[in-house]
Amino acid sequence: MKIEQFPDPYLGTPWQALGARILSSGTQVSVTLGYPAQGLVPRLERDLAAFLGVERVELDLRFRAPEGRVPGPIRNIIAVASGKGGVGKSTTAVNLALALEREGARVGLLDADIYGPSQGMMLGVPDGRRPEVKDGKFFVPIKAHGIQAMSMSFLVTESTPMVWRGPMVSGALQQLLGQTLWDDLDYLIVDMPPGTGDIQLTLSQKVPVAGAVIVTTPQDIALLDARKGIEMFRKVDIPVLGVVENMATFCCPNCGHETAIFGSGGGERIAREFGTALLGRLPLDLRIREEADGGTPTVARDPEGAIAALYRDAARHMAAELWGMRAGARGSGDRLEISMTDD
Fold first, then answer.
1. What sign does the dihedral 186-192-197-198 (CA atoms) show?
2. Beta strands 240-245 and 211-216: pairing type?
3. Can you state the angle between helices 89-102 and 306-327, rounded to 10 degrees?
4. Full-model pTM
5. Contact between 195 and 114 (Cβ < 8 Å)
6. Above pLDDT 90, what percent of the chain?
7. Which domains does the chain possess?
8. Contact between residue 282 and residue 311 where contact means Cβ atoms under 8 Å apart
9. What is the largest CA-CA distance in the chain?
């Protein structure tokens, strides 16, 4: 078998068809993918060796992000959204951003929830810390845990309510995005407010969004709102890269019994219904909440841990879907299963 025909573990499409850059000499292989995947190197080395029928492969895995829709310091903007509040969207957004960074990408995080910004607290940015202002009109993003970040919470105190009408909110979003000096980003993750209102319309009309991710829980009411979110993005011609099912299961810390408290299979049903990918299923775990509230989200706190592995897998899958879409060979949601444990 030729290495060019190796099926991508997320898209199921041969690397050659996706436009991967491949160089090989004996058992030494260099591959440049369109999504960051440093955490997959050991697994890919074993899978490639089996695919090629050799004893071992030494893989030099590189990454080059797909080119953006418009020139500038941000190659790809990805919106993380939910149809309703309370599904863990902001926690998912920050962990996906951190996961992309750990996998080898340059990442920014924009908190677009003007009324209820939370990313400052989740990233551990002290209340009262303000971004540097350059030339009297540009914000320098605050760096935290390896990513660049901008949020309305950096400009107001935690106790200041944003009593603004829709046009003011839309204007604030455009300022945060356009007047921030983002530094050479492969991905800008935008943490959207819940729902389908002014911010969503402003983003779709004024910003070249590459794709959207929908966060939901397995509950029927959350799934109903998730459908509305997907339909909204489709109506404004923003492709949905996939669905993240949050709070999928709860594992009792005392006995280890796993329970699907909010139901099961909802994220998979939504993904299948709309022909998109189920990017990941995340547990209902106290540590995720505690670590985000404490300013060191799970992927930053324990990047090699079991829960972080789920976020990193979802982030790779999300970025792979974007690569496949740009290459004209987007996956159908089917994927090869990748065990995150050592053999």
1. negative
2. parallel
3. 80
4. 0.90
5. no
6. 55
7. 3-63 (no CATH), 74-327 (3.40.50.300)
8. yes
9. 64
